[in-house]
Design a protein that fits this description.
- It is built from five helices and nine strands, in the order αββααβαββββαββ.
- With 187 residues, the protein is an alpha/beta fold.
- The chain has one domain: 3-Layer(aba) Sandwich (Rossmann fold), CATH 3.40.50.2020.
- A hairpin with a 7-residue loop joins β1 and β2.
- α1 crosses α3 and α3 crosses α4.
- It is globular, with a radius of gyration of 17 Å.
- The structure holds 1-O-pyrophosphono-5-O-phosphono-alpha-D-ribofuranose and adenine.
- Adenine binds next to β2.
- Its EC number is 2.4.2.7.
- It comes from Pseudodiaptomus poplesia.
- Pathway: Purine metabolism; AMP biosynthesis via salvage pathway; AMP from adenine: step 1/1.
- Its main location: cytoplasm.
Length: 187
């Protein structure tokens, strides 16, 4: 006989709690004064990994008709972007740290919470005028997401939205980002 709640889909809120509970924090990494939130700890926990994947699939379905491609940011965005892209049958395109992508690239310099860097996208990776979903694990100061938006605009594409798993709300990074920002967890 069926038990109560058997076959009932878990709510987004209960899935988010499972994910939040698995996120491990490290003080003073990679520099003094930085509290580092480690998305990889979610992937070490079977229930958290499953909950996160389900949330990503649900989000993917909700944006399917609004986007043409998913762009993930090096490196932790690569955990997230391919699953969203695969769920809705859209192309996945990487933005990588400078010097890692073959062929002609657009390049941008930027600052993030604990340093400076350069990122690239291949000039022909996106079709002109594509509506692009940008995904990453975490929004801190917003420097990385804004740099990604600049690269996508260099490809003559439109940023539909930037989606992050974790937003460090106190850093107000979304103010720096010139495109819409959505976050799963506000910490
Ligand atoms: O909002 P910001 O201050 O710009 O910081 C956020 C970025 O910092 C981290 O990436 P990192 O450059 O450390 O690369 P990694 O994913 O390879 O560790 C994180 O994955 C985001 O991409
Ligand atoms: N505090 C933080 N934790 C994890 N990744 C980050 N990237 C930038 N700031 C970060």
């Amino acid at each position: 006989m069926a038990q109560p709640n058997e076959n009932v889909e878990p709510s987004n809120d209960s899935l988010k709690k499972t994910v939040v509970d698995a996120i491990e924090e490290y003080e003073d990494f990679p520099k003094p004064g930085i509290k580092f939130l480690d998305i990889f700890s979610v992937y070490r926990s079977k229930p958290a990994h499953e909950a996160f994947s389900l949330l990503l699939e649900r989000y993917a379905v909700s944006v399917k008709n609004s986007i043409d491609a998913v762009v993930g940011l090096d490196s932790r965005g690569f955990l997230i972007g391919p699953l969203i892209a695969r769920t809705i049958g859209k192309p996945f395109v990487p933005i990588r740290k400078k010097g890692k992508l073959p062929g002609p690239c657009h390049t941008v310099k930027y600052s993030l919470e604990y340093g400076t860097a350069e990122m690239e996208i291949q000039t022909t990776a996106l079709q002109k005028n594509a509506n692009v979903l940008v995904v990453d694990d975490l929004l801190a100061t917003g420097g990385t997401l804004e740099a990604a938006c600049k690269l996508i605009k260099s490809c003559e594409c439109n940023v539909f939205t930037c989606w992050v798993a974790i937003e460090l709300v106190a850093l107000e990074g979304r103010k720096l980002v010139s495109s819409p920002v959505e976050s799963l967890l506000q910490l």
